[in-house]
Structures are given as C-alpha cells and as structure tokens.
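Q: What structure does this chain adopt?
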Amino acid sequence: MPKKTVRSSKRSWKNDKKANISRKKIVKLVSLILLVFLSVSLLLGYFSYKSLTVSFASASGSDSFDLINHDIFSVSVIPINDLDSSPVLTKNLSLFIYDTEAKKVLRYDIPLNYVLDIPGKFGEENINKAFALGYSQNHDVMSGVDLVNSSIKKLVGINVDRYVLTYGEFDREINEVLNGKNPLEYVSFDTIKNLGLKFKTNLSLSELSHISNFSSSLSTNDFITGPILNDDYIKDLAFDSNSAIEKKSVAILNGTDVSGIAWFGKRIAENMGIRVIASGNAFGKYDESMIIADILDSQTVGYLKRFFNINKVVLKENSEVNESVINRADITIIIGLDKANNL
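A:
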C-alpha cells in the first residue's frame, strides 16, 4: 500500500512538472505573439505616419526649419468636411503658438465667417472658403492648405510653421495632443490602419512628441486664448524672442505699386519683436523680392525669409541695389511683385 502511494506521488509530481512546463511555454508563446503584434503595429503606425507626413524641407525649399530648436513656433489645425464635398469647407480653424522660453501657449480660434481679402487676388471671402479656393485650382490638397495658412498669416500676423489637416474626424484627438495629451493614448490597431484617412500633417513624430511633452508640463494658466485683430498678445509673447534679442535694425521696402505692402511687412516684423527703423516705398520697382543683410544666418533673417517665402538673400557687401536705407539698416527686405500679389 505505501509503495502505491509513493508511485502515485511521483506520478503526480511529474504531471505537475509537465503542467508547469506547458504553462511556461504557453506564457512565452503568448508573450512572443503580443510582442510581434505590438512591433508590427508600431512599424505599421510609423510607416503610415511617414506616408501622410509631407517633408517640410522638400515642401518649402532647401533650408528646413528646425522647429524643436526654436523658441517660438506655430501649428495650424484645419478640419475640413470632406474632399468629395462641393465646396470643401473648413469646420473650424485654430492656430497654436508655442513659446518654449516663456512657457506659454497662445491659441487663436478663428471665426469661420470672418471676411478676409484672401491672398492671391481671390477677393473678399469668408475664411472658411480659403481651402476650397486653393483646392479648386488643381485639386491638390496642399494648394488648399497653403491658401488657408497664408490667410491665417495675414489675419493673425505671425508665420505658420506646421499644419494638421483632418478629414472629418480625429479633430478632438489632434487638439488634445497639441494641448499636451500623450499621442500614445490614441494608439489602436484601427487608428493605425486608417491613419492616412484621418489626417495629414508636416509635423514629424519627434516634433509631435516635443509639442506634447512641452504642453503637458504647463499649467492651465499657461494656455492663453487670443482674440483676432489684436497683435498685442503676440507682441507680449515675442518681446524676448530670439529675433528680438538679436536687436537687428530692419528696413521694409515696397518695391511695387500695390499699396499697404510696407505697412504689412512692418507689422509682421514688429509682432516678432524685430526693430523696424524704416518702412515705405522703394525708389525702384522690383519683380523679385530679396533680403539684403549684414550676415545671412541670423534669427531675424531666417524668420523674415520663412514668413515671406523669399529665396534671394544677399550680403550687404555684395549687393548692387541702390536704396539708401540699406546703409543704415542691418537688414533690408524688399518685397517685389512675385510676393506682393500673394499677401
């Protein structure tokens, strides 16, 4: 009788050992499957995001703007109803301005019924029609985005560095991420699979993470909502910007017959804390816009170049332009016909 008990105990111990080994194998197998699934999901998400991300360098010239290493930058959010709609209208329109030095976020919610002289000689229209006007030119999404951003720049008076275009959904999630929520909270297989159908952006993954991390470190009081047509909020934000700290003297010249160009240029520069010592009409007329500067790689030159999308930048010592103000200013910007008609 005792022998049977011993044999029975040994058999039971062996069975338990086999069961334990089987359980460990199952746990390892399930862990491996989950790891593979997570890896595939992340890779799919990465390449999906890459496919809907437009390279800023290729879209805006050879000099890419390094958002992460700048103190002030902005992101527009452009939700549209549907590309198949006629016309394609924006559902709402926002601009986020981040100041990483002052640790503030300024947000503009732009009324869709606001009437604006749309850049590009489209005349006065509600700003919610800007995307449709741009898109209708050649049915190119980027033409719509560019015209909306140009309209925002004209209205708010600051450059638009990045954009997020959403297609009828994902609006709330994008706004929450730009306000500091972790993007990973929205990761799901369905979201990743349909990412390209939800939105389009020229924000890189590292930039999106940078914005989320910065915004999440702020308190509620650090988020400000600014009224449009009031540049004081931007000026308060940018009074100690990198461009302002440089203290470069700037002259703005209108090289065309289009009225208001020099005033507009002065407004844009002063909003970023740049010191304008002269603004007015140039002596001559210029087909091509240009910047003439004492040095080419200053923060001030970089900002004005980005805002007005000017490719021609020359050193003062190499300039053959005969405008007397050039001798007095560190930087002279001449706005020619190539840009004036699109402001």
